[in-house]
Amino acid sequence: GPSSYPKDEL
Amino acid sequence: MNIFRFAGDMTHLISILVLLLKIYATKSCSGISRKTQELYALVFLARYVDIFTEFISVYNTIMKIVFIASTLAIVWCMRGHRVVRRSYDKELDTFRHYFLIAASLVLALLVHEKFTFQEILWAFSIYLEAVAILPQLVLLQRSGNVDNLTGQYVFFLGAYRGLYILNWIYRYFTEPHFSRWIACVSGLVQTALYADFFYYYFLSWKNNAKLKLPA
């Protein structure tokens, strides 16, 4: 699956 | 950052400030589900484990601290404050919220971005947040008429995730390879759970009547 994206949302 | 997400974060912050105001001003937590507050504390602790490792921005870090600290303070207040805890509707707040925790954990182990500790905790926090309001909505139905501040608290808490959905739509169209399908699907479910509350909240506003949810 897609790489884990940076969690820039709260 | 876009206007929808910023408005969503501010709406979320307002919901917490309204709840703090209600508890502080009335020295009472009647009508508030302690279980929902505990679930939200778990949501923030699970979602913000990266607060010390992943620096996104000053805004992001400050908001994470505010959300964790305020929710833990509310749970502490409802459990430990000798005046406030007396007004807790213990016999009405009976939703089996441990099932919500277990179900969210199982789902996070099955459906996640990557099978890593942090990603599974993040997915767990997303799923748990979607259902965290259930004990509060059940309590509102049982406790008859709802005081204004409690109604406003639930309204803003429901509205914030609706604004986040607009944020995800905006980002989908403006950012290549943007995919937040776990948060998006979960956010849709979360917002949908408020549908009947929003309906009765709108009616009470239109008829200038006291907010009352049918049992």
UniProtKB/TrEMBL annotation, chain B:
Keyword Mitochondrion belongs to the record: no
Location of this chain's protein in the cell: Endoplasmic reticulum membrane
GO biological process: protein retention in ER lumen; protein transport; vesicle-mediated transport
Transmembrane parts of this sequence: 56-77, 98-115, 121-141, 153-173, 179-202
Keywords: Endoplasmic reticulum, ER-Golgi transport, Membrane, Protein transport, Receptor, Transmembrane, Transmembrane helix, Transport
InterPro entries recorded: ER_ret_rcpt
GO MF annotations, alphabetized: ER retention sequence binding
Main localization of the protein described in the UniProt heading: endoplasmic reticulum
Protein name: ER lumen protein-retaining receptor
Gene name of the encoded protein: LOC115992138
